[in-house]
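Example record

One chain of 116 residues, shown exactly as stored in the release files.
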Amino acid sequence: MILDVALASGVADYFVICSAESERQALAVQEHIDKVLSEKGYRLMGLEGTEAGVWVLMDYNDVIVHVFKRGVREHYGLDRLWADTKRVPLPKARTEAPVSVPKRRPAKERAARQRG
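Predicted structure tokens for this chain:
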């Protein structure tokens, strides 16, 4: 799930929330996301939760990625917490679906949002 949180959060423009079936899968998802976003020019600013692999948080400044082990995602309920924000449509599932990265907001718009 991709949420446009720019108007509701002073931290980021988008939250990406996804689930994994195990700690190992959560870490594999984290590694894949980092590889793909790095290739697209996004720089990882912060990384938390890799020790346990039940909730991995990746901070790309404008985009914050949450990779949850399934039960942990349901427990914390970020989907419900941010339910009033706009959902960004995901591409239709394909065998080799390309990773779609939300467009970055212009730097002036990001700076204005951070000022309040």
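Notes: The chain has one domain: 2-88.
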